[in-house]
Amino acid sequence: EYYLHHSLVIANEIGFTRDVVHLLYEHARIIAARGELEESIALLALVIQHPSSNYARWRAGRIRDNALELLTALEGELPAELFNAAARRGQEMDLDEVVNTLVYSYD
Questions:
Q1: Which residues does residue 85 pair with via DSSP β-bridges, in sequence order?
Q2: pLDDT tens by residue, 6-47
């Protein structure tokens, strides 16, 4: 997580939006593994709707495809109402606000 955070800081500072979106996807994977499913689902919904998620990462495919795959896997892990609420919340999130929160809240 340490390296992910520093990568997010750098990508954000130099304006590499595609990499910021990809790093949010990676963060969503990590927090899903920790059991923070609702937050992960919200981040994935944000990632999927962002235009930069259409770009591919080298040898990793399109960011959107990876995020959709994880989102689909998480769908059965929560009751439908919780899953849908988290996804809606993510669709309403602002990328810059989320990134700033993650960048400045790291311990």
A1: none
A2: 999 999 999 999 999 999 999 999 999 999 999 999 999 999
